[in-house]
Amino acid sequence: xxxxxxxxxxxxxxxxxxxxxxxxxxxxxxxxxxxxxxxxxxxxxxxxxxxxxxxxxxxxxxxxxxxxxxxxxxxxxxxxxxxxxxxxxxxxxxxxxx
Length: 98
Hints:
Blueprint: H1 2-16, H2 18-41, E1 45-46, E2 54-60, E3 63-68
Antiparallel strand pairs: 1-3, 2-3
């Protein structure tokens, strides 16, 4: 009976223990994925180091997010309206009279 009590205590502590660690790991992973997504939205790349022509936008997990200096945010599309010229065509074919 004593062994059964020890076994149940062990199972109970093992099953309840790692849930907190898994939750913290999941939160860290989610935050890192969000930073990577923000980096890709500004057309950046997660690299080990940025070049001279790039600047550091934010950190992707451990690496910096490098964005090209000449990056411009996308502009709104311009709508172009076309004006149409109406043309009338006349026929030169003579129709026989009946």
